[in-house]
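Dear Dr. H.,

I hope your travels went smoothly. While you were away I took the liberty of generating a structure for the chain from your last submission, since the lab meeting agenda had it listed for discussion. I wanted you to have the full record in hand beforehand rather than looking at slides cold. The sequence, exactly as received, is reproduced here:
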Amino acid sequence: MTNADPSLPPFGRALCAMVTPFTEAGALDLDGAALLADRLVREGCDGLVLNGTTGESPTTTDAEKSALVRAVRAAVGDRARLVTGVGSADTRHTVELALAAGESGADGVLIVTPYYSRPPQDALEAHFTEVADACELPVMLYDIPGRTGTRIEPGTMIRLAAHPRIVAVKDCSYDLLGTQKVLAQTGLAYYAGCDEHALALYAVGGAGYVSTVANVVPGLMRSVLDAFDAGDTARAARLMRRAVPLIEAVMDAGLPGTVTAKALLAGLGLPAGPVRAPLRPADRETADGLRAVLAGVTGEPAAV
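The corresponding predicted structure, in token form, is as follows:
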């Protein structure tokens, strides 16, 4: 799938960081992944990010990652763009995953900052450049220093933007000033990786979002962007505020978003399954609380 119009965001606007469904026995649930992906696209997602943080990439094998991409591609066809996480702490392994992503049918790769070793900025630049040189797919950089321990500094991001295949950023830096500096000096497509920033980043020139909460309410998250694009910024703000209680419950309640999103999907009867260790499922009280928040958000009148 190619991006025929270079003026449009390279991977769509409304992207979901999709969970990876597992069976109750803990195996990869490809049928469930296909059903979930189809629902997400039908309800407003024009892009899906697979094998990312929410997709539990640290606990899936290389073969499972490729199988997931193939299954989702078969389910959604050309209705959505597929980006798959290929990042690791090892440059050689990242290159291998990036090459496998192209063979599996992905439209792009998401490359997270190498973690644990905390490479300095020149090493980061060399890492991303080596992977982008080796891979024929467009690249989305993943800046999430809260998990990796290392920030992709704005100056580094600006230099990396000169690479023809580095086209986008999933921004979890919590540095709106730094982000705007990069936006002002590059053509990088910035996607809000923190759900609460979806509208704020879009309003200053971002491309859209990569949302965990969209696993549960893809239509609500998409409606924020649609209202803004229609020129109704007041409605966009109201819709964004409607989503805030759910964003807080899913992303800022002391549990990883994967855990909370899967608890909500299970409550909706949608494919999710358990999380893989070392993560643990939400307990009954937490799951009930999440469902109560979701009911409060989706139970409001559609007209805002």
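Two observations you may find useful: Residues 300-304 have pLDDT under 50 and may be disordered. Residues 48 and 303 are 27 Å apart (CA to CA).

With kind regards,
E. W.
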